[in-house]
Amino acid sequence: MKRIYLLLGSLTLLTATGAAATATEAYEIQTILAASSPTSSRSANWKPGDGIVLEVGGMDFTADGKLAVAIRKGEVWLIDGLQRGATSPPTYKLFASGLHEPLGVMRDGDGLLVAQRTEITRLRDTNGDGVADEYLTACRGWNVSGAYHGYTYGPKRDGAGNLWVALNLDLGERSDNDAPWRGWAGIIGADAAFKPMAAGMRSPCGLGANATGDMFCVDQQGTWIPATPIYHLRRGAFYLNPEGLGPQRRPDSPVKLSAPVPNKVPYPDAVRAVPEMAPPAVWLPYNKMGRSGTDIAVCDQAGKFGPFDGQLFVGEFTDAKVSRVFLEQVDGQYQGAAFPFLSGFASGVVRVLFGDDGSLFVGMTSRGWSSLGLHSYGLQRVRWTGLTPFALREMRALPGGFELVFTSPVDAESAGRTESYSIKSYTFLYSSAYGSPEIDVRPLAITSATVSSDGLHVRLQVEGLRELYVHELRADGVRSASGAPLAHPDAYYTLNRIPRQP
Amino acid sequence: MSRTVYHLALALACASVAAGEPVVIGHQRFHAGEAGVAGGRLLYNELGCANCHGGDTGLPARRGPDLTTVTTRQKADWLRAFIASPDQHRSGTSMPGLFAGRDAADAGAVVHYLGTLAPKSTGRARLIRHMNSESGKLLFHTIGCVACHAPRDDYVPAGGRPPAAGLASGTVVFPSLEEKYVLSSLGDFIRDPLKTRPDGRMPRIEMEEQDAIDIASYLLGLPGSDGEQAPKLDPFVPNREKAARGRDVVGALWCAGCHDLPAAERVQVTPIRDPAGGCLAEVPAAGVPNYVFNVSQRRALQSFLARRDETLPAEHRVALTMQALNCTACHERDGNGGPDAAHRDYISGDPNLGDTGRYLPPLTGVGRKLQPKWLEQAVKGAVRVRPYLNTRMPVYGGAVAELPALLARVDAGPEWPMPAGDVEAGRKLLGTHGGVSCITCHRWADRASLGIQGMDISNLAQRLQPRWLRDYLVNPAAYRPGTLMPSFWPDGKAANREVLGGDTDRQIASIVAFAREGRGVPEGFPSMTTREFELVPTERPIVLRTFLQDVGTHAILVGFPAGVHLAYDASEARPALVWKGRFFDAYGTWFSRFAPFEKPLGDALKWPAPAAPPGLRSFSGYRLDATGVPIFLFTVNGVPVEERFEPVPGGLRRSVRWNVERLRSIAVAHPEGVGAKEEEGSEGGKLSFVYTWQ
Questions:
Q1: Least Cα separation, residue A37 to chain B (angstroms)
Q2: I need a labelling partner for A135 at 20 to 30 A (CA). Which of A181, A373, B101, B485 fits?
Q3: Given an 8 Å threshold on Cβ–Cβ distance, is A369 in contact with B622?
């Protein structure tokens, strides 16, 4: 009991360190716990301070409303007092320990599934003392070489009940990407076996299903991956990074490329060259939309988090922020737009999760990599203050342009002028190099802007749309009915397919 | 120093156009407004006068930066402008104006000449992926940069921003950095200024490369986190004709007086004949270096020149050296110097240690405090004994070469005929069992102290002179005002009367003797819990997974309170190592990004794989029983098996259970080098062995 008391003593209950911190903003960031010292956790000599080293690797709510937090040193903590209506300060209880760098946790039945480097483990408390006493192997079957970056992510459940797991490519010393299944995602099969489904990932740090139950995964920029992509996971797909393709020779591989992967070609050419290559549903262009995507949470809050139900919220490490993604289907394939949402978090954002009170929990750690969030670790929550932000809620593809959907009515005069907008399209160089600049950049002519009678929709007629290109919109000139500019006038639409005329 | 000047200094930090006399911080702080000889000597040295006019000031040589690579580091436009009128582009610069009355193109020609000295570019710019100006801001304001440079308005120290009026001198003002540098070259300069400015006036603060980049990105005001977005330096291609002209100009202007340039450019040292003419004229003639001296600077120089042949007493030499290198920004000596009111709040450290946890130690008598070898290392910046200070002692290079010997000479005091010490008494005194409990607040080598984490004192015999230590222990506050350290020998009388009969001198000598012998630790450290991340099983076993040498990537460690431990290999579902003694240090597993392969803390015995092939043996997890002991679970050909280990006196019991109806036998192996005895009643389905160490 004394230990718990001491831990609570070290909590910092601060409000608002974020960009949207004042009561006049639509969203505010509250700190639940953050490392008290902002000293550099990337230093080889860094040592954690007192208290719980809440380097968040995974988060989920238990059946009784506690937040289960897996932390990188190998523990799972249960935090009580974060659910709707809780009034007393949160309490922390150690549930499990001795795990190997867990980077995911998910409630399943009366237990928790937690991703360790070597396996998915089912944790259960069988004697009711509130501490796990069963650590049973729930999924295994991938090689663990000892390379530091051989992380395991997940599991996450899709609409059909499949539990998805993603495996990082090996990087650094001892790497062995020819061994199965590095850079692959799969599901937990019979007999706790890993069942590979899709290949071509590099650092598939975050999984999450959308509102209809399809599974998505956010990867990170690096070799062969020019910017942060969000993939729609499905059997047989190959995405971007071929370094882990060795195991496609195995009989249990669902991926068989029918053509070699080209190098140093514009990305659309690569898609045309390799039929199995599945374009990301959305690209988050490098820097403009952060640098290292980490997690996906679908907003299922029935309005409690503002006007963005059904959209994906995407965590980002280096710039310590959260972005927003709108998806639609064209010819049965997902594509959509990414929008800036909120920055100014305390540390590198690794996990995002909606609570039952409509707030977005943000779990963080910066150890090992550089982040604009200077605290070594922490847990924060984003609350909607009830004010409707003036924002681009959706950007939809049309046969000859885009339809913009706003969160509140626009000023018809400014929104009806084509000069209020600009659009350019570009793609990336698909290559073994690290990242890519935007290439083949082309400004596009906007020939008309038509505002709907309710002021919420604007149709832009745009010339020269290009499939598989990112279409970057800026709506700097648009004002709300009350004269306010957009807090984030930019949006990034990944136009994999141009819809046909109805 | 007035408030106005302070604000001016802050304003100048961002402005590119400014003018004024050269700033020598030590002179402004200790000699401003006087026309004294000492201040004149300091100026004569710090403005590099001796480089052209000769004379030994007794102070570390002042030289200009290395110009042979300058066009690969700094922007040509800025160089041209700065050379043409230095004080207009960098307020307070000690580079004199040289181009009055000259063709404006001459400065450009000099840059072309310098470009011919530069090594050929490899054409490959260094990749800088990350930068973080917020981190740079924090470093800039905490590790010591603001001892010489003005703090900035966008940083507020924990105690609030101090009143500007407390500033005791001007600061070293930056030029417009974005006009001068790019991210990579400013980062390189911050990482190791001595490389291009070996005279040590900008010393090197040890830091990681990333930290230097972060500071550079902050000073350059670069947004975002991607270093590749930062502007790059355009390659400078010298024009041969202009370079030839530049070479003539460099020769004519005696640039090689201060800057190391090829031998052909050397200058003839010319003693000053007219102390009211030349550079010291109120308006120097065209072609004569113009330092833009103010009246008191000019008078001080003239005073010094009139008495330049007088010998400099050694204690003055120490004081002036410390002023020249601005040691006095952080350190007080003999009542002079130390941080001024405007700087104190920027100096931070461990608040648990009070003021001594953040302020730098005074240097009064340091030559009789520190052992000569230690003093030499300390002045070089090669030893760091106060890890809790955020300020880092910089490295000055050759500029401090003579300082240790000088300090030792100036500070020498009477010897102390230290009596013979008793090693065991020393150990007792340092400890908490009948001693004076030094280890309550002081660390001892890698052992954390019991309370606040004061300085490691295990090295006190190598570090401190006994006489000084004795004087200090009798009255710490006299040496370190504000210290939390109490005296255990007040007025020279030992508070502890039990050890050595309360003989002060013998007690202190015994502490020195124990530290000098370097064996063991003082009494009172809790056994085996002293390393911060050493796992010590106490009530229940500790179970954790890690990468382990000789086991692999699937190791599960089990540490028992009884002091016997094992590593289980989950990939083969079998025990793999066993050891006694200390269990495991978890730091690498818990906190290294690179997930190192670890080793047990004891000498482990190998536990070989069973002779039979593992076959269809498959690990399925473990359960913790009511006492926290793990029961490992696996299957052999689909039949579930449970395996449990528990300590017994002198060894370890292993029991293996399964349904013998479904599986007749399973293969087991025993650890090497221990006795293995099968217990009574052991049979198929419930095997039981006891292993004992011989």
A1: 11
A2: A181
A3: no
**How far, rounded to the nearest angstrom, does the alpha carbon of residue A438 sit from its chain's CA centroid?**
22
pTM of the model: 0.74
For the domain that residue A357 is a member of, what is the CATH number? 2.120.10.30
pLDDT tens-place string over residues B293-307: 999 999 999 999 999
Q: Measured between CB atoms, which of B132, B226, B624 is closest to A287? A: B226
Whole domain around residue A66: which residue ranges? Answer: 2-384
Q: Are residues A435 and A352 in the same domain?
A: no
Residue ending a domain, choose from A384, A403, A434: A384
The domains found in chain B, sorted by start residue, are: 423-517 (1.10.760.10), 534-693 (no CATH)
Q: Using a CB-CB distance cutoff of 8 angstroms, which residues of chain B are in contact with residue A130?
A: none
Contacting A residues, span 286-325, partner chain B, CB-CB under 8 Å? 286-287, 291, 318-319
Residue A371 and residue A423 in one domain = no
Q: Is B639 on the interface with A (CB under 8 A)?
A: no
| Cβ-contact A337, A325 below 8 angstroms | yes
Residue A502 lies in a domain: no
Residues A354 and A448 in one domain: no
Look at residue B170 and tell me whether its pLDDT is greater than 90: no
Task: Find all residues with CB under 8 Å of B376, minimum gap 6, and list them.
Answer: B404
User: A38 pLDDT exceeds 80?
Assistant: no
Q: What average pLDDT does range A292-297 have in this prediction?
A: 97
The verdict on a CB contact (< 8 Å) between A47 and B591 is yes
Domain closes at, from A363, A384, A405: A384
DSSP H helices, A358-423, are 412-415
B552 touches chain A (CB under 8 A): yes
Burial of B307 (0-12, 13-18, 19+ CB in 10 A): exposed
Residue A501 counted as domain residue: no
Q: CA-CA distance, A299 to A313, in Å (whole number)?
A: 7
pLDDT at residue B13, as a whole number: 37
Q: B9: pLDDT confidence band, cut at 50, 70 and 90?
A: very low
Same domain (yes/no): A399, A306:
no
Question: To probe the interface with B, which of A370, A371, A377 has the most B CB atoms within 10 Å?
Answer: A370
Do A58 and A166 lie in a common domain?
Answer: yes
Which chain B residues have a beta carbon less than 8 Å from that of A134?
A: 621, 623-624
Instruction: Please check whether residue B436 is in contact with residue B497, taking contact to mean a CB–CB distance below 8 angstroms.
Output: no
Beta strand residue intervals within A385-489, DSSP E: 392-398, 401-406, 422-430, 438-444, 446-451, 457-462, 469-474
CB contact residues (below 8 A), chain A span 376-405, against chain B: none
Residues of B in contact with A46 (CB under 8 A): 591
Average pLDDT value for residue range A22-41: 78
SS3 percent helix, strand, coil of chain A, rounded to 5, is: 5, 40, 50
Do residues B455 and B385 touch, judged by C-beta distance below 8 A? yes
Counting residues of chain B whose pLDDT is more than 70, the rounded percentage is 95
Determine the average pLDDT of the residues in A433-444. 93
What is the nearest CA distance from B42 to chain A, expressed in angstroms?
39
All residues of chain A having their beta carbon less than 8 Å from the beta carbon of residue B138 are: 38, 374
Tens-place pLDDT, residues B357-410: 999 999 999 999 999 999 999 999 999 899 899 999 999 999 999 999 999 999
- State how far residue B135 is from chain A, nearest Cα, in angstroms: 7
Instruction: Report the C-alpha dihedral over residues B526, B528, B533, B534, rounded to 10 degrees.
Output: -160
* Residues A351 and A485 reside in one and the same domain: no
- Each residue of B553-610: pLDDT tens digit? 999 999 999 999 999 999 999 999 999 999 999 988 998 878 899 999 989 999 999 8
Question: Inter-chain contact A368–B593, Cβ cutoff 8 Å?
Answer: yes
